[in-house]
């Protein structure tokens, strides 16, 4: 699925979506769409947003190959959060050794195994059960904070689903990558179910605060469900008004 004028490709993986973004670094009127066979003939950065389950490596590589790329063409990774269905391929995908992985804390420490999720919470217990399935990536892990700019993206701290959950907005492309803060069902956005959240009250606050701060994007791209590709900002405001 190609969205945002062809600059974003959605990869539908086993459990969650991942996205490949052609982050423009050349003048705006240059043609930097991601299209089959295009290859590396561009000055753009190729950014992978989230990375699927450990068993999604083949699907991700096929998705990259469909647009003439491979894992070595990815320039950076943005993680919305630490969960097995969003970080699973990082150690095995074949990223270049210097490719940075950006993620908020404390999720960054969970990813690198510097600390563990809290075992006394249902979310932390589920993450700990899944941890043996994951190998920590050897790539540099860079912690992002609310307001950080990464290329054309701005990071928004949106804790609740996980403590370090982060959304990324590319205002020039008109896309908000919101991870599991919300999900799509039948064209409607809903908060992530309470059983999947570290703190559902905090997640609802994050939805309201993000909707108030987010620029009026066209596309809302989430981890679960189909991206809202027309007036996504309106859908975001509506779910914020309900929670």
UniProtKB/TrEMBL annotation:
<dbReference type="InterPro" id="IPR001279">
    <property type="entry name" value="Metallo-B-lactamas"/>
</dbReference>
<keyword id="KW-0378">Hydrolase</keyword>
<dbReference type="Pfam" id="PF00753">
    <property type="entry name" value="Lactamase_B"/>
</dbReference>
<protein>
    <submittedName>
        <fullName>MBL fold metallo-hydrolase</fullName>
    </submittedName>
</protein>
<feature type="region of interest" description="Disordered">
    <location>
        <begin position="22"/>
        <end position="41"/>
    </location>
</feature>
<dbReference type="InterPro" id="IPR050855">
    <property type="entry name" value="NDM-1-like"/>
</dbReference>
<dbReference type="InterPro" id="IPR036866">
    <property type="entry name" value="RibonucZ/Hydroxyglut_hydro"/>
</dbReference>
<feature type="domain" description="Metallo-beta-lactamase">
    <location>
        <begin position="15"/>
        <end position="224"/>
    </location>
</feature>
<dbReference type="GO" id="GO:0016787">
    <property type="term" value="F:hydrolase activity"/>
</dbReference>
